[in-house]
Structure formats: structure tokens, C-alpha cells
Design a protein that fits this description.
It is a single chain. The protein is α/β, with parallel strands linked by helices and 210 residues long. The chain has a single domain, classed as Rossmann fold, CATH 3.40.50.300. Helix content is 30%, strand content 29%. The protein contains six helices and ten strands. The strands form two sheets. A six-stranded mixed beta sheet has the order 6-7-8-3-9-10, with helices on both faces. A four-stranded antiparallel beta sheet has the order 2-1-4-5. The longest helix is centred in the last third of the chain and has 16 residues.
Length: 210
């Protein structure tokens, strides 16, 4: 059972405090962090994924992010809201990198690229991708390998309805295997497709349950 705990979090950009709370804890399941731009959702996700410095403590299954970063990161997968990759490499080269880092099998990657209908574009340079193709590529990267916690920041933006349905199905499939999800979205998530364990939002620098 997955357990994520954040203790005594204090995150500032210069003199501006973005997040400040004593504790936030979630277990296994699918969780939705809702709210508009600028509320701190992405900052929170970047803290949990080890992408930005902060004051406080983050534990995943009792692994401390600051004390054992490599083990911690091996248990999570983070897909940014607006993914940025080197424009001069191909989609296939990026996927090969994720395959090596996450010790994944090629057939697993092939299933994901077929699911999101990206096969015919894999040999193109990422600089030529549309925003929708880039988003699909980032989602494919997020699902490569075996992790415990998937962090998907605004996963529904720039993808079509059909791809969104496929994403929902993939989340359900992984959740049935005991994997956990943190999703952020200022759009409404289809609650008929996902069994959401809890919905949160950030108010006055703290995480509150809706």
C-alpha cells in the first residue's frame, strides 16, 4: 500500500511564499488536486518529484526524498503540464532513454505508442511535434516502467477526447494493480470513469480537502 507524507512544507520563491503547511498525507488510490493556474499545484508536484528545493520532509513508503533521492525517484513518475524536451532528438530516441533508465521492455513501449497512435511520428524530431503529439509523448514516457506513484500535471490539456478516454482507461488499469495517482486539473475530471479517492485544492498556501 502506497503512503505519501509531506511534513512541515515551506516553499518560497524569493520573498513570496507559495506553500506552507504542517502535514499532508495520502494513501493508495487516485487523487485529484483541482484549481486554477497560480495556486501552487505544479510547485507541489515538483516538490514531490524532487524537481525543486524546499524546506520540510517528503516520504514515500517511508523513503525520505532528501536522504535517498535515487530510491525515491525510482518509485515515482512525473509528467509535467507543459513538457519540454530537446527539440533536436526524435520521439524514438526519447523513449529509448526512458526504456534504459526504467529498465522497461520494448513491447511495453510499443503498446503505449500504439494506444496513443504515435508510431508514425516516432522518427520525427520532437521540434516538429504539435502540442497534442508532445502531450501524448509525455504521457507515454510517464507510463514506461514500474513505479508506485504517477504524478500527472494537467494530463487532459491539448489531447483529444479519444486520447483522454484512453488515458482514463490506462489509469484505471494501473490503479487496479495497486498503483497510485496524483492528478491536477483545472478542468473537470470525468468522475464516472475514475474512482477518485479524494479531491483537494490549495487555499492560502495549504492543501484542503474539498
Amino acid at each position: 500500500m502506497t503512503s505519501l507524507t509531506l511534513n512541515h512544507i515551506d516553499k518560497k520563491y524569493g520573498s513570496h511564499t507559495v506553500l506552507q503547511f504542517d502535514q499532508w498525507k495520502i494513501g493508495s488510490g487516485i487523487y485529484w488536486l483541482k484549481g486554477g493556474n497560480g495556486t501552487g499545484k505544479t510547485t507541489l508536484f515538483r516538490i514531490i518529484s524532487g524537481q525543486t528545493p524546499f524546506n520540510g520532509e517528503v516520504l514515500l513508503d517511508e523513503i525520505n526524498l532528501k536522504k535517498d533521492l535515487i530510491s525515491f525517484r525510482s518509485k515515482i513518475s512525473y509528467a509535467e503540464a507543459e513538457p519540454q524536451y530537446p527539440l533536436f532528438i526524435t520521439g524514438k530516441e526519447l523513449l529509448n532513454f526512458y526504456k534504459e533508465v526504467r529498465h522497461a521492455q520494448q513491447d511495453e513501449i510499443d503498446k503505449l505508442t500504439s494506444l496513443f497512435e504515435l508510431n508514425e511520428f516516432l522518427n520525427q524530431k520532437i521540434g516538429g511535434y504539435s502540442s497534442g503529439m508532445l502531450k501524448k509523448l509525455s504521457l507515454i514516457c510517464a507510463f514506461i516502467g514500474d513505479v508506485e506513484l504517477y504524478i500527472l500535471d494537467e494530463p487532459l490539456i491539448t489531447i483529444d477526447v479519444v486520447s483522454a478516454t484512453k488515458l482514463y482507461d490506462l489509469i484505471v488499469q494501473k490503479a487496479s494493480q495497486g498503483k497510485s495517482f496524483l492528478l491536477s486539473s483545472h478542468q473537470e475530471i470525468n468522475l464516472e470513469k475514475l474512482n477518485i479517492a479524494a479531491v483537494f485544492e490549495i487555499q492560502q498556501k495549504q492543501i484542503t480537502r474539498c
